[in-house]
Specification:
By secondary structure, the chain is an alpha/beta fold. It folds into 2 domains: 3-207 and 361-391, 3-Layer(aba) Sandwich (Rossmann fold); 209-254, no CATH class. The chain has helices at residues 14-21, 34-43, 93-103, 122-133, 145-157, 211-219, 223-227, 240-248, 261-265, 331-337, 350-359, 363-377, and strands at residues 3-8, 24-31, 49-51, 67-70, 107-113, 168-176, 184-185, 187-195, 209-210, 256-257, 296-297, 302-303, 318-320, 326-328. Helix 1 packs across helix 12 (363-377), helix 4 crosses helix 5 and helix 6 (211-219) packs across helix 8.
């Protein structure tokens, strides 16, 4: 039986591809950005893409749904932004809560940036968690969110909850994409919840890749270098103690090495040569280093790709060679670093495509979390018919 999902704030499709790999049938993808919608339509003609503001959506017509997923805009909480949180008009967590309230899914999964976990947002994160725990709780628009938080906290600790009240077991988890086979150090926060009445026990998926395994592959077994046909390089002095520890320890192969930029780019020609026939693999001149932005070395996972501002990709969207020179990653290289398949094409300009990729959820990370959820809710999957997505946009 197919498990049914909807996705909010779909962007370029990284989360949608992860859901697809996990066995979900995404019956509607909601996204307001026309360029992102163009990329989605270009790659998946069979996906039901609804270009709209999610505040206009009547979710009840889409029931029943097994999973609600999405990545609410991260700018209100990003380290590089103004960090206004709830006071930022782009904060769409209230819409994520409304989707859960109206759809009553078996589970939900929302992701966001690590900056959301800063102490400055601690109370607001608790407000989000409690709203997702009690989505039917009447949050008042006539008082500030902190007063609503206190009301929710009293509800949470009281005995006033009704027996038939819709509630969810909600967990908040911080994950590094590199730990799940993504060649990139990208930290994301996941809000995952299951309907309490399903009595599901779940834990965040365990890491499948580790830094220790990469160090071992480089400097103990040397397998990393031989896999690339290269002469082994010595470790930096700061790694000597760790290398000695790994060399003397017992090898139990339960995890794999972190994947590196070199791993991700394997098989792609240098874009600075003749024009490549590979889609999106074009050299973009103008890369330069500046304080705090020095690019990503070949033999480590990439630094987190950034969407950037004012049409310029983030300064870390660069490859740094051993001689210190840098160049921008091509769109195709960036897509590989975000673990998009090579047949997934970005039809927009270089700056727009890099913006979409900088905002995307790595496909492998999305898939790992979605697969762990799918295993738990598959026995409870819904199979009834529902309205088409075109019928749920008001007006």
């Amino acid at each position: 039986m197919n498990m049914r999902s909807i996705e909010l704030f779909s962007g370029a499709g990284g989360l949608a591809l992860g859901l697809e790999r996990a066995g979900f049938e995404t019956i509607a993808l909601f996204e307001r950005d026309s360029n992102a919608c163009a990329a989605l339509r270009h790659n998946r003609r069979d996906w039901n893409i609804v270009e709209c503001d999610v505040r206009e959506v009547d979710y009840k017509k889409l029931r029943p749904i097994d999973l609600v997923a999405g990545g609410p805009p991260c700018q209100p909480f990003s380290m590089g932004g103004k960090a206004k949180g709830f006071d930022d008009a782009r904060d769409m967590f209230p819409e994520a809560v409304r989707a859960v309230r109206e759809l009553q899914p078996n589970a939900f999964m929302f992701e966001n940036v690590r900056g959301l976990m800063r102490s400055a947002f601690a109370n607001y994160v608790e407000f989000i968690r409690l709203q997702l725990t009690y989505p039917d709780f009447p949050v008042s628009e006539n008082i500030d969110w902190e007063t609503n938080l206190r009301r929710l906290q009293r509800h949470h600790t009281s005995k006033s909850a009704r027996f038939d009240e819709l509630t969810y077991k909600v967990g908040i988890h911080l994950a590094d994409a590199a730990d799940y086979g993504v060649p990139q150090r990208r930290h994301r926060v996941f809000f995952v919840g299951f309907r309490t009445d399903l009595d599901i026990g779940w834990s965040f998926p365990a890491a499948t890749h580790t830094h220790d395994d990469l160090i071992r592959a480089k400097y103990v077994t040397k397998a990393y270098w031989s896999s690339h046909g290269l002469k082994p390089l010595p470790p930096e002095a700061k790694l000597d103690k760790k290398v000695a520890e790994l060399r003397s320890g017992e090898l139990i192969a339960t995890t794999k090495p972190w994947r590196t930029v070199r791993d991700a780019l394997a098989g792609l020609p240098d874009p600075r040569g003749k024009e490549s026939p590979i889609a999106n693999h074009r050299h973009q001149p103008g890369a330069r280093t500046y304080p705090g932005h020095t690019g990503s070395p070949l033999d480590e996972p990439s630094k987190a790709l950034k969407a950037g501002d004012h049409g310029v990709p983030g300064g870390e969207n660069m490859l740094r060679y051993s001689n210190g020179r840098v160049r921008y990653f091509t769109v195709r290289e960036s897509a590989r670093i975000q673990t998009f398949p090579d047949d997934y094409v970005f039809p927009g300009s270089w700056t727009e495509s890099m913006r979409q990729l900088g905002n995307a959820v790595p496909v492998k990370l999305a898939g790992a979390v979605a697969e762990s959820i799918a295993k738990k809710i598959r026995p409870h999957a819904n199979s009834q018919a529902c309205a088409t997505a075109r019928e749920v946009v008001e007006g």
